[in-house]
Design brief:
Number of strands: 6
Distance between the termini: 40 Å
Number of helices: 11
Shape: elongated
Order of helices and strands: HHHHHHEHEEHEHEHEH
Strand content: 15-25%
Radius of gyration: 18 Å
Largest sheet: 6 strands, mixed
Helix content: 40-55%
Structural class: alpha/beta
Length: 247
């Protein structure tokens, strides 16, 4: 892999991890999740950072206040340094993601300001079919995914790409052929979205059960036209930008 490409991929991953921690409703759990995703022990991570293992343990258990940006930068750098010392498996996986971006991901954005899951669903004309009590929580971005191209082809590592800079987002699965495949993919992913929306096949009983189990709001978009969904997303984004910023 060319050095400049590898450098850009590292930056992309570092921003994604840091953003996921900063925007998470539970930074301690998110930090633990990423460390385990890298298959790194608390002792190994602490050694790389030059701190006591108890520091890592305290942050992951919530015994310490949420870490500041300076600590998060050191923490992310340590994760990536350890991965590189092992051969850079995650970086190599990310190199394959670049080939998938234009095909599997139809649109991905971080919102100008957070809005509730319910407001997001209303903007897309989506019906909440599971966990409506969770619909007041905020989302910070969205990803529109072509299910036919993605659900059955993205590996566990590749699926990370759909989360952009934070997992506190809505994943919109378009052209769903089976009413359960998006929630199955979410179920086996270590990173969970704030909400899932489906366009195409209606969520089946298993999808509803998985949504309730994960406590993730699930909504159904009745429109049969994916371009209508994209237009609604574009309109929502422009509205959130405001007349001065959005033009």
């Amino acid at each position: 892999m060319r050095r400049d490409v590898r450098r850009e991929l590292k930056r992309f991953l570092a921003r994604s991890i840091a953003g996921d921690v900063i925007m998470s409703r539970s930074p301690s759990e998110t930090m633990k999740k990423w460390r385990e995703l890298f298959h790194i022990s608390q002792v190994e991570l602490a050694r790389q950072m030059g701190v006591s293992p108890s520091v890592i343990s305290d942050y992951e258990s919530g015994r310490r206040r949420s870490p500041g940006t300076r600590f998060i930068r050191r923490w992310v750098s340590a994760l990536l340094a350890i991965d590189e010392a092992r051969g850079g498996r995650l970086i190599m996986e990310l190199s394959r993601l670049e080939r998938l971006r234009s095909d599997a991901i139809l649109d991905i954005r971080e919102l100008p300001r957070p809005i509730s899951v319910r407001e997001f669903c209303d903007a897309l004309g989506a019906e909440l079919v599971a966990c409506p009590e969770e619909a007041g929580k905020p989302i910070y971005g969205y990803t529109l995914i072509d299910s036919i191209r993605a659900i059955y082809t993205l590996s566990g590592w590749e699926f990370l790409q759909v989360f952009g800079h934070t997992s506190e987002r809505a994943l919109i699965f378009a052209r769903v052929a089976r009413g359960r495949s998006p929630m199955v993919a979410v179920r086996i992913s270590m990173i969970k979205p704030r909400a899932v929306l489906m366009q195409g096949a209606k969520p089946d009983r298993l999808a509803l059960e998985l949504a309730e189990l994960e406590r993730i709001p699930l909504a159904y978009i009745g429109s049969s036209n994916v371009e209508e969904v994209r237009a609604a997303l574009k309109e929502l984004y422009a509205r959130l930008m405001g007349p001065e910023e959005g033009g």
